[in-house]
Amino acid sequence: MTQDFIQALPVYAAADITVISGANLGDPISFADELDLDDVYELRSEAAVQRLTVAPGKGGALAIAPDSGLGRAGNAVYLDATLTMMTHTGATTEVLVLVEVDNAGDIDAIYVMPLAQLAARTDYTLVGIDRSSARTRFAEVACVSFARGTHITMASGAQVPIEDLGLGDMVLTRDDGPRPLRWIGRATVRAVGDFAPVRIKAGALNNAGDLTVSPESRLFIYQRSDALGAGRAEVLVRARHLVNGDTVTQPHGGFVDYLQLLFDDHQIIYAEGIATETMLVDPRTRDALPPGLAGDPAARPADHPRRAHMDFEVRQGLVKRPDAAALLRRASGG
Q1: Which of 109, 157, 253, 321 is buried most, with the most CB atoms less than 10 Å from its CB?
Q2: Model confidence over 216-244: pLDDT tens digits?
Q3: How much is the average pLDDT of 236-263?
């Protein structure tokens, strides 16, 4: 298992979501083969979202990271199914079912990752079980994404709205100069819960305009002084760790149009003047890509090779503080 690319997933334990009416009355939610359509589920009122920290594992699976608050480090985690739940009003919510398996192949735990916020004391009827889409839906969540309207710095210095970019356009990268775009992904997702986008107001990190990104996106910041105590000047910081309710917010409600930018290598580019990462191809994100990008009509690109800037990420403990954005703005020369 590699610890290079970890992600903290917001999940509920299976026991937090139980059947209150239907064939499996009283049972917790489970993997696809044990579920029945039309069962009605409810989230326990005292249930709380927990963090399952995973990294790419063997054979395309995920693996539980040593610092995870849930599960046993090293155990494999498999994406079992996408479930569609419907409330009495007809509103639908998707959740992913993740299964933790030990070295002997036995199931240790089952987790549910909601793709939209679940409410306690609300009836959710199971109306869809999709065993084929879980990996793709998870990949979409794991991708680094920019909101429509984000201005990207081109090789010429021009500031171009991201939705106006095209394949082959030359974008300025921090490490490799001008590089052509290989693929542009697009998705519209609900701006709710843990997956609501993060908005960095103009000036918060010396950015020219508001920057809205997916919460797991990592920003590259060069500190002239080590304000965070990271032990180095260059740091990568996840956008969600900077949320302070003021200059960096996570607005909820409605939908957000996201775009993903793919290059031949993992890159740091400039969005609204902030250095930020592009899509990283690894076992978590590969299924978001269409076949054919690797030349073979049936194949997806190989994982991106490791780059030096991947070592610069700082953990949540150093940046999960209300003044983190202000410290980084001052430390980077603003």
Answers
A1: 109
A2: 899 999 888 888 888 888 899 999 999 99
A3: 92
Point out which residues pair with 212 in neighbouring strands.
199
**H helix runs in 146-284, sequence order:** none
Q: Give the sign of the dihedral formed by CA 261, CA 263, CA 268, CA 273.
A: negative
Cβ(108)–Cβ(99) under 8 Å? no
Residues 6+ apart with CB under 8 A from 59: none
Instruction: State the DSSP code for 133.
Output: S
Which amino acid appears at position 9 of this protein? L
pLDDT at 23: 96
* Averaged pLDDT of the chain: 90
Residues 63-85: what's their mean pLDDT? 92
Mean pLDDT of 202-215: 93
Name 31's Cβ contacts closer than 8 Å, sequence gap at least 6.
80, 81, 97, 99, 107, 110
Residue in 166, 240, 299 with CA at minimum distance from that of residue 8: 240
3-class secondary-structure state, position 130: strand
Q: How many CA atoms lie within 13 A of 274 on its CB side?
A: 34
Amino acid letter for position 282 = D
Q: Tell me, what amino acid is at 243?
A: V
Is the predicted pLDDT of residue 45 greater than 90, yes or no? yes
**CA angle 252–257–259, rounded 5-degree value:** 125
Backbone angles phi, psi at 84, to 5 degrees: -110, 125
Residue located via tokens 């739940």: 85
